[in-house]
Amino acid sequence: EGGFGGEPFAEAHGGYTFCALGALHILTKAKNMPDLKESGVDLEALQKWLVNRQMGYEGGFQGRCNKLVDGCYTFWVGGAIAILGLKKSQFDSGIYGMDTDPHGVQRLYDELCENILKDAGGLLFDQKLLQRYVLLCAQDVSGGLRDKPSKPRDFYHSCYNLSGLSVAQHVLSSRPSAGGCEAVMYEHEKRNVLGANHPVYNIRIERTKIMIETFYKTD
């Protein structure tokens, strides 16, 4: 299929794929490999499987082939696609930029993506359509987020809907601006802007930077 399963010969699954891809990204960095191509992964098949998990009608991601959309895969699949988009120089910050944002994180913009970054974003899925699913379908009217309409809200889905929403707004897409942060937004509702999180660690960028500087520090 192209994605990763929980064990040999099991079907590919969005959650296992994210965990495998995140671990491989950390290991390639630790071993000073230039990129994920050196890990032996069939990146073309993996990318094809991942991008085909976004459903055109709902806008959200399914976790396996022929399954319904589930809000938690907003992060598991969206985050995995974001990891595939990172170059080695962007691993520590998780975002493009040639400027330094308010947290001191350097953002390396890709000149080739300049036009799409202005509106649609730099990831290989429809970032605005995914945000629409989270905001209009996954959010419960009483607060919290859920798998899908008719399902109850819970902490797990609240966490990963929000984490994926941050990825869709910021990773390879957002840039510092005079007003704070210019992100890819559904309907340009600024009140819906979340803090930027790192797609590998799922931790706020400013905290990730401190962690990386601490644990990768050499004498």
Number of helices: 7
How much is the average pLDDT? 82
Structure classification: mainly alpha
Question: Which regions are unreliable across 5 or more consecutive residues at pLDDT < 50?
Answer: 91-117
Tell me the helix content. 25-40%
Overall 3D shape: globular
Determine the N-to-C terminus distance. 44 Å
What's the total count of β strands? 4
Helix and strand element order = HHHEEHHHEEH
Computed Rg: 17 Å
Q: List the strand order in the largest sheet.
A: 1-2
Q: Give a quick account of the main beta sheet: strands, pairing sense, barrel closure.
A: 2 strands, antiparallel
* Beta-strand percent range: under 5%
What does this structure look like?
- It is a single chain.
- The chain is globular, with a radius of gyration of 17 Å.
- It is mainly alpha-helical.
- It contains 7 helices and 4 strands.
- It has a two-stranded antiparallel sheet. The chain has a two-stranded antiparallel sheet with strand order 3-4.
- The model is unreliable at 91-117 (pLDDT under 50).
In short:
This protein has 219 residues and is mostly helical. The chain has 7 helices and 4 strands, in the order αααββαααββα. It is globular and about 45 Å long.
Key traits:
219 residues; mainly alpha; two-stranded antiparallel ribbon; 7 helices; 37% helix; 5% strand; globular
Strand and helix map with partners:
Blueprint (H helix, E strand, L loop, with lengths): L13 H17 L12 H9 L21 H13 L13 E2 L5 E2 L6 H4 L9 H12 L16 H16 L4 E3 L2 E3 L22 H11 L4
Helix pairs in contact: 1-3, 2-3, 3-6, 5-6
